[in-house]
């Protein structure tokens, strides 16, 4: 078998096509020639196992993966809700639209790409800079 590029199979961009930051991150990755699986998490919400892995890889606290300023969060979550790992997994399974976006996961590390240029923290950016 030929060697596989380290990002070819594992790199995923959790993406919302209506989000300008998601579209920008995707464009940056594609223009730099990186193979990336695009996951429209509203059409294909991540399951509990996928969310748990994503949280393990994330360079931030579990609560950072939740769009806490969204009206749906205020409607759904009690003000005293502690957004620990388990609560985030439960919340995002029930309400996937509350997932922060875009999120790039290489299979070992993940970031919330806000601003979109943060994708280059995880991938070789020698094509652009």
TrEMBL record:
One Pfam family in the UniProt entry: ArsC
Protein name: Arsenate reductase
Domain of life: Bacteria
InterPro entries: Arsenate_reductase-like, Thioredoxin-like_sf
Gene3D superfamilies for the chain: Glutaredoxin
Gene source species: Salinisphaera dokdonensis CL-ES53
Family under the similarity heading: Belongs to the ArsC family.
């Amino acid at each position: 078998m030929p060697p596989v590029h380290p990002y070819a199979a594992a790199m995923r961009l959790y993406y919302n096509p209506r989000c300008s930051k998601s579209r920008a991150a995707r464009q940056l990755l594609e223009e730099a020639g990186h193979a990336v699986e695009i996951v429209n998490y509203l059409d294909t919400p991540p399951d509990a196992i996928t969310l748990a892995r994503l949280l393990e890889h994330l360079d931030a606290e579990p609560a950072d993966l939740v769009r806490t300023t969204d009206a749906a969060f205020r409607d759904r979550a009690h003000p005293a809700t502690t957004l620990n790992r388990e609560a985030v997994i439960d919340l995002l399974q029930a309400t996937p639209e509350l997932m922060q976006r875009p999120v790039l996961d290489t299979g070992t590390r993940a970031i919330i790409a806000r601003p979109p240029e943060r994708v280059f923290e995880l991938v070789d950016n020698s094509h652009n800079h």
